[in-house]
Design a protein that fits this description.
By secondary structure, the chain is of the alpha/beta class. The chain is 36% helix and 21% strand. The chain contains 7 helices and 10 strands. The strands form 2 sheets. It has an 8-stranded mixed β-sheet with strand order 3-2-1-4-5-6-9-10, sandwiched between helices. The protein has a two-stranded antiparallel ribbon with strand order 7-8. Strand 5, helix 4 and strand 6 form a beta-alpha-beta unit.
């Protein structure tokens, strides 16, 4: 068994795996098809990382697919009952890429809630408001990243809090799973800032932070 299973080898997978290594956590890293990509990333990060490909048994207590929303739905369908009881961390922003003007889930739902309907895992929303480049370091402008978290299961939510804290990040539980609706709109807005060529200061290098009064 490992502490986390991270699915994917792209930029978000890299950032999450870097934070896991910093936290001293063991990681199962699954590539979509090419195990060599997982092997290369594992060697680069030099932590307690085992590698494999999508479809192999999930060994992590926390499962974090670092993929788009549609791919997350396919993963939930593929693994089925194997996810039951595990903590599934949904990091997605279900952007409608056809219009790039809205989200692709119903207004009264969220990616996290849609995934929860399809799995026996305990779905917790987290990391969707952070960018890959900033996760690698865990800070922006000297400030630790906020990880905004929403979940219905107290133990599952706490497991994500503990991982974020151990990784040097600042976990903030915003409420139950339905608060993922607001988090996904926040994540979408954050994406739009970096996708806007008229805002050159925001190029996937920013962070959303809630600053309490001193």
């Amino acid at each position: 068994m490992t502490d986390l299973t991270i699915i994917g080898t792209g930029n978000m997978a890299r950032g999450l795996a870097a934070r896991a290594v910093a936290a001293g956590r063991s990681v199962q890293l699954l590539a979509h098809e090419d195990k060599a990509k997982a092997d290369s990333l594992a060697a680069e990060l030099d932590g307690k990382i085992t590698t494999g490909v999508l479809g192999e048994q999930l060994t992590g207590a926390l499962v974090i697919p670092a993929v788009y929303f549609d791919a997350s739905r396919a993963i939930v369908e593929q693994y089925g009952d194997a996810l039951t009881g595990k903590v599934y961390v949904d990091i997605t922003n279900p952007v409608d890429f056809a219009t790039f003007d809205s989200l692709s889930v119903p207004a009264d739902s969220s990616a996290a809630e849609e995934l929860q309907k399809a799995t026996g895992a305990k779905v917790v929303k987290a990391f969707n408001t952070t960018f890959a480049a900033t996760l690698s370091d865990g800070t922006v402008a000297g400030h630790p990243l906020d990880v905004l978290i929403a979940g219905d299961d107290a133990a599952a939510t706490q497991a994500v809090v503990e991982f974020a804290s151990a990784a040097g990040l600042n976990p903030v539980v915003v409420g139950p799973q339905r608060r993922a609706r607001q988090l996904e709109h926040m994540g979408f807005l954050h994406i739009l800032l970096s996708a806007n060529e008229e805002l050159p200061a925001y190029q996937w290098n920013s962070a959303l932070k809630v600053v309490p009064a001193a």
